[in-house]
Amino acid sequence: MKKILVICLACASAAAASAQIRVGREGQLSGSVETNTIYYVEDKAIAGSAGSTEYDSDFGSHTFLKLDYNWKGLTVGAQADVFLPSMRGYDITDYGKGKYDIALGAAYVKWQDKNYFVQGGTIFDQLGSGLVFRSWEDRALAFNNALLGAEAEYDFGSYVKVKAIYGKPRLYFDWADSWVGAADLSVSLADIFRMKSAALSLEGSFVNRHQSLGAFTFAEDYGLTSPDLNMYSARLNFDWKGLSLRGEYVGKSDDVSKETPMAVAGNAWLAEVGYNRKGFSFLGSFRRLEHMLTYLVVNDNAVLGGLGGGNVLNYVPAMTRQYTYMLANLNPYQVQADGEVGGQVDAYYALRSKSDRSKYWNFHFNMSTYYTLKERIGEHRLLWRDVNFDVERQWNKKLKTSILFSRQEWDHEHGFGGSEQTYASNIFVGDVTYKFDRRKSLRAEVQYLYSDDYEGDWVAALVEFNMAPKWSFFVSDMYNIDSTEEGIISGTAENHFYNVGAAFSYKQTRVSLSYGRNRAGFVCSGGVCRFQPAYTGLNFVLTSSF
Asked: pTM above the 0.90 mark?
């Protein structure tokens, strides 16, 4: 059945990848296809380095085929996930059914009217910030924990909104041995009291995970006696002119994880304040987490960490700056959901020329810092600190420059080891873009990382040439100047990481091809990370929609 669905989706996507399809007078068919394929090349320079792993296949491919049909308030959709086989560095590689896997990534029917909607099939949704519940798909992580069940929402005018969800969560290619039920309530006090200049709402959520403890051999030894895990969330949202305030408290009943083998209760605090006015914006956030790692299913494998990052019910991203520059993203922060406290501040200021709108300055300052909870190890130990700023200058219609500095410090044992040693990196980035005309532009990056710790100093560079709207070419290199015994890099050749590639776009279709050597490390998407082993290979990516 799955293979037939894949063939049908592939044919429909290929036949209509560049055109809108109207079915009947009011029906509309849309879809997309995305494929990411890597051919791995033997590279003796990285074969013995830490993070490199032996695999059976020299080929990996992830393909996602999706179709949606809309008619008035009715929407029907389906998605096939094809792994032929899965690429290296993904949890789905280790927990798949076999070398070649096909999964039903989504299949649903939804009816939406003015005040309500109902949906059956696979459910993707989030309650509040996601601390109690989030079912979502992230293709960069090959992550999908959709619920197979039903969802309904009703809006009582603009005053009260209620939502209910129930289903069985997806765990890689199977369904977890648990059931999840959730309810959410949102009350708009601003509409009730007719507040015209402000928005004020109170929200709350309740989530229940129910599973038989039969598969958990040592459940009673861990102090887990109930098949039910309950979580609740209370939230406050306020907006007035340029000011915004957000607050959330989460409570959690007794649960276990690999970091807390004994059943303990959890809680979380989240607060955000934002302000923007006339070119200035500010956002500050604070978060405290205690025992907030929540599994889809708890059993002997789960508490030993044997089910990977896909076995997660809630969303706890790293609240730090997410970089695109190579050296600034060498060692991203790994959130400690079982115990951390800290926050982040972001400040922007834009200065525009009154006489020439093509000229401007953008100033940005960011800082994030996190510590272990004192309750865990008897003291607050630094987990992460990043202090950074960047300045962007648009000189005229042709030339734009940007400089960035980041000072990063982190505990390489994430607060769980006996050592209090931290590593520090100082990263400098220069970025220049020059437009020759409306279609052709050249962008260049130079980067330098200075450090007395870990892997020592790095240099990196990138050159990108664009011929809008169709062509783009790039070449980049990242080189480790120093080599230390504590680093994962040794020798000379594997300190050199190069990439070269090109991309072609036509209407809604984009194709890219690149070749290079990639360093072992964490790859992050939306604040959630996975570990990527070192590899050298040829990478082909295609995305198309209609």
From this structure: no
